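Below is a filled-in request sheet from our internal design queue. Each sheet records the structural input a requester submitted and the sequence that came back. We keep these sheets so that new team members can see what a complete request looks like end to end.

REQUESTER: design group, bay 2
PRIORITY: normal
MODE: inverse folding
CHAIN LENGTH: 339
BACKBONE (tokenized):
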């Protein structure tokens, strides 16, 4: 079966990521240099620190430096670092996710259980820009985590984007705004394109789980993929499926996204599965996931009358980049032994 390749075959993973690594290093160095000694002490951890594996998408305090405690100039440098780890599209969505905290504060009023603040997002560096280092920005509904290896490779997961409200209600500023509209609409287009037989295989449960299944686990452990395989879809359905996957990779810088898609090409699109749970109608609780040999996408929209979205991209083999780092060290040792 012929499957459309989405990335140029002449490029190998990592060859083009050096551009993003350079931008990240410049942005991180400028941000760190702007900090006072106390801020540097709180915003920096050794690369080997277990703290690097902590992440959450729920409201609450974190380690690191919050945007709230930064000066205006420092905050702008933090945004530059965030932009270096995302595409333009991804960055605009990340900024919109943070801005929705003010909308949520107005919706909940004084009865809300959590403090809603667009500046309560925490930036942390792990190690210093060089061959191996990392960073993250983490807060309510936004968690982006990066490890840089060898000066030219980027491990970009876990990557979590969420929104509440999923659609801003009428009568409010930004009414009708859907920050993560494509993640819902493209999946629903794929589901609605399936005829009865294929649809029965894709739908794995009549009710959606209350949240993404993997939650905030440091490591993802799932059984064999469920749902309908890419190989079992028609050509049009395969194209819809690819559009959905590309929507998630498009959050990343183009060179990093290309590496992710190249990896899928090499492993084979035919092994990907699409699974849906819950209602098919808009406005009703629903969930889906895309499960491949090396990655997992989860999407859930069940809370707040199905107007509260969680999405995540996880690497089943190399979340946090630990395996990438081991491979680099093994290669370096082998090359040294030959010399």
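RETURNED SEQUENCE:
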């Amino acid at each position: 079966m012929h499957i459309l390749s989405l990335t140029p075959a002449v490029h190998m993973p990592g060859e083009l990521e050096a551009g993003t690594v350079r931008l990240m290093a410049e942005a991180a160095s400028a941000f760190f240099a702007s900090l006072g000694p106390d801020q540097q002490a709180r915003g920096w951890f050794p690369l080997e620190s277990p703290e690097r594996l902590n992440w959450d998408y729920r409201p609450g305090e974190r380690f690191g430096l919050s945007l709230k405690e930064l000066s205006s100039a420092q905050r702008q440098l933090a945004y530059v670092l965030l932009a270096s780890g995302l595409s333009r599209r991804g960055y605009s969505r990340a900024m919109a996710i943070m801005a929705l905290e003010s909308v949520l504060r107005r919706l909940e009023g004084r009865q809300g259980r959590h403090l809603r603040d667009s500046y309560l997002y925490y930036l942390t560096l792990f190690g210093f820009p060089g061959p191996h280092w990392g960073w993250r920005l983490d807060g309510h509904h936004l968690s982006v985590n990066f490890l840089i290896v060898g000066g030219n490779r980027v491990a970009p997961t876990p990557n979590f984007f969420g929104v509440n409200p999923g659609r801003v209600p009428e009568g409010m500023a930004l009414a009708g705004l859907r920050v993560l509209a494509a993640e819902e609409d493209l999946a629903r287009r794929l589901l609605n394109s399936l005829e009865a037989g294929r649809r029965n295989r894709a739908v794995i449960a009549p009710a959606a789980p209350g949240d993404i299944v993997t939650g905030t686990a440091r490591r993802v452990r799932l059984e064999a993929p469920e749902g309908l395989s890419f190989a079992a879809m028609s050509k049009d359905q395969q194209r819809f499926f690819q559009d959905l996957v590309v929507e998630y990779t498009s959050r990343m810088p183009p060179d990093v996204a290309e590496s992710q898609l190249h990896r899928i090409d090499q492993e084979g699109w035919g092994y990907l599965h699409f699974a849906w749970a819950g209602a098919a109608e808009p406005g009703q609780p629903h969930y889906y996931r895309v499960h491949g040999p090396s990655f997992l996408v989860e999407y859930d929209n069940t809370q707040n009358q199905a107007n509260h979205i969680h999405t995540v991209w996880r690497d089943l083999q190399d979340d946090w980049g630990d395996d990438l780092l081991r491979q680099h060290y093994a290669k370096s040792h082998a090359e040294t032994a030959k010399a």
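SHEET NOTES:
- The chain has one domain: 18-338.
- Residues 7-14 have pLDDT under 50 and may be disordered.
FILED BY: M.R.
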